């Protein structure tokens, strides 16, 4: 199209490209449908880009058929010069169509076809995704997943999860759904993580993203799942722990986890001597939760907290050692009362820290961290005869 002069009124004022589906706004200005709809959906200032007059997000956009036919005719006349013909646009999908798809999703004979169409429409544009949220598609998809879990049928799971990732589960809607279905959606997503799919990595990554949103909405329920060690597979448990670990960096999430009893549930789970990967995940989450005052208080209120962390040092992996020592460092720095220091002696915490200093395989930065903990409370711990002898070997 180099060297061809395109009539100015064929160009969209936003994209500056030839309009494929010209529509006229209430302000009288014509835009390409995709460009103006994207403008209205994503811009905080929903004024007309040309006139700056108010243009509400739900304002009518009238198809400009006359201009579209002129553009198509011009493109046909200049086809020999490399101009592509503009096809006649298909009618836009409205909300009623999504309500129809939701009904089809509830029917065994048509649910897979409905899922495939939802997948196509969600990937097409932001307008469709907005309509999906407004018509309740996320809730319908979550219900579909729960039903599949209850019937132990994985058919349609991949499509449902992919659409959920496209449209993103609104947090408010997630909370309402959880109130209606209790913890079934959490269990369902964990179950998905234990199933075999193709492509497996893609499906499970989508499940983790959905699980992360649900965790943000319902920390108490994921804590309840952690307590169900007899009904959840090891792979599913590790998936739930991994999702918690992903959600940990946000302070609000940590507070919700602490308030829901996650600290106690994690300690109880670790006291059962789980596999190596599970321990690494548990001490990783406990470290994040101990970064806040409430988390440290819950950790110390459990009689097995300090004991189980100390016991795992030098017995699991360097990753577990790292998180365990950092947990002890936080306790030592912020809540080292006389009773806490005495408990650290009784459960072998001080002895383990001293042992780390004497083992060549301990990473230098961990030795430095362990030494810092010991030095900060040397005077208190030297009062214990057995510990005083240990200090003599170290210093």
From TrEMBL:
Its EC number is 2.3.2.27. It catalyses: S-ubiquitinyl-[E2 ubiquitin-conjugating enzyme]-L-cysteine + [acceptor protein]-L-lysine = [E2 ubiquitin-conjugating enzyme]-L-cysteine + N(6)-ubiquitinyl-[acceptor protein]-L-lysine. GO terms for molecular function: ubiquitin protein ligase activity. CDD domains: RING-Ubox_PUB (cd16664). One of its GO terms (biological process) is defense response. InterPro entries: ARM-like, ARM-type_fold, ARM_PUB, PUB22/23/24-like, RING-Ubox_PUB, Ubox_domain, Znf_RING/FYVE/PHD. Keywords: Transferase, Ubl conjugation pathway. Residues 5-81 form the U-box domain. Pathway: Protein modification; protein ubiquitination. Functions as an E3 ubiquitin ligase. This is U-box domain-containing protein. The lineage of its organism: Eukaryota, Viridiplantae, Streptophyta, Embryophyta, Tracheophyta.
